[in-house]
Amino acid sequence: MDLDYVPLGRTGLRVSELAFGTWRFGRETPEGTTEIGQGRAYDLLDAYEAHGGRFIDTADVYGGGKSERWIGNWLDERDREDFVIASKVYWPTRDDDPNGGGLNRKHLRRQIDRILERLDTDYVDVLYTHRFDDDTPVEEFVRTLNEFVEAGKVNYLGTSTHVPNAWKVAKANEIARRKGYEPFKLAQPRYNLIDRETEGPYLDMCREYDVGTVPWSPLAQGFLTGKYERDADLPEDSTASEGDRWQDHYLTAENFDVLDVVREVAGEVGATPAQVAIAYLSHHDAVTAPIIGARTTEQLEENIGAAAVSLSDDQFRRLSAAKGGPFDEV
Ligand SMILES: NC(=O)c1ccc[n+]([C@@H]2O[C@H](COP(=O)([O-])OP(=O)(O)OC[C@H]3O[C@@H](n4cnc5c(N)ncnc54)[C@H](OP(=O)(O)O)[C@@H]3O)[C@@H](O)[C@H]2O)c1
Q1: Domain boundaries in the chain?
Q2: 325: helix, coil or strand?
């Protein structure tokens, strides 16, 4: 199964239809173990590449910088030009430094150079603001981000922001338009068959402003794989579900009803629930490329298989309607 290329939103760039997310690279658990160590990170990147995957998602804070550094090392033996690399900036990276986080100019300028140094590259294809910063004037960060594009350090700008902030993205893009700056051309929200808050005004904003959508957590952090059962113990090999907050949010009667519909469609198309959940996003008119996560190469292989799944309009609508609420077109 080889991944195809799709246009990245309304940019001229083409990217793999499924991006690969590296959030867990080098991430320390509260027990002090590393979720995905360096060796497994390379195995995962190798497996993604072997299927034609060329769109890698990271952030300056993932694994305290290890995710970017390992990707940079892995790229050493490859042609960097073959890959589209996206990183993010916002979260604090210096303890006790009031300017060591957010989107203020000092932090942005410091971080872009650190990102490029760790990735061992002259430019990132996409730089996202990881969250919105209400303490920095929009003009300040829009202009600073534009400088990065002008300097060739960044090709496209994106924003990974929470849904109630849709109007702030619109405001930033209006300021960019008036000043002739580069606007946000991508949005990275949480979006999956369980978490549907993106539907409605946020996706409307993305369509109106030609902002491509690259959703994270397409599997609701594993819930949509079907490995969690009603009234059963949690599977032992799962790390995503640690903590009561995850369980209270996902392991609900309503969500298990959604999963029943996903399983039903999976049976009809001869795919797994995970593949159907990812395929749902790929079939969505407002989605550019979901970011798949995986802790093992087996999970990654399964998730990449989603690219071969074809859903009928009726199956898409049944999946869309499973949680009720707003209904998006195929
Ligand atoms: N912008 C942001 O704020 C933001 C936030 C979160 C993520 N992201 C990006 O989006 C990427 C993906 O997010 P995510 O990790 O939450 O995605 P996800 O696909 O919803 O969840 C991935 C997790 O689900 C489990 N899983 C995945 N495939 C599976 C399979 N086939 N069978 C069984 N279990 C499977 C694994 O955890 P277990 O095996 O431990 O259960 C895996 O780590 C991240 O790596 C990151 O790049 C961005």
Answers
A1: 5-222+284-309
A2: coil
**Atom 29 of ligand 1, nearest CA residue:** 299
How far is the centre of ligand 1, averaged over its atoms, from the C-alpha of 222 (Å)?
7
CB 55 within 8 A of CB 290: no
CB 108 within 8 A of CB 121: no
The CATH number fitting domain 5-222+284-309, selected from 3.30.1460.10, 3.20.20.100, 1.10.1060.10, 3.20.20.70: 3.20.20.100
Is residue 119 within 8 A of residue 86, CB to CB? The reply is no
Is there an atom of ligand 1 within 6 Å of 133 CB? no
Range 154-193 burial, b when 16+ CB lie within 10 A, else e: bbbbbbbbebebbebbbebbebbeeeebbbbbbbbbbbbb
Q: Which of 276, 291, 302 to mutate to test the pocket of ligand 1 (most atoms within 8 A of CB)?
A: 291
Asked if residues 224 and 197 have their Cβ atoms less than 8 Å apart, the reply is no
- For the full predicted model, state whether its pTM sits above 0.90: yes
| Dist CA 74 CA 136 (whole Å) | 35
Residue nearest to atom 38 of ligand 1 (CA): 238
Strands 184-187 and 154-159: parallel
Tens digit of pLDDT for each residue in 299-328? 999 999 999 999 999 999 999 999 975 555
The residue type at 152: G
Tens digits of residue pLDDT in 38-82: 999 999 999 999 999 999 999 999 999 999 999 999 999 999 999
Query: Crossing angle for the helix pair 166-179 and 138-150, nearest 10 degrees?
Result: 60
- Residue 21, phi then psi, degrees to nearest 5: -95, 140
Cα of 304 vs centre of ligand 1, distance in Å, is 13
Q: Tokens standing for 156?
A: 């496209």
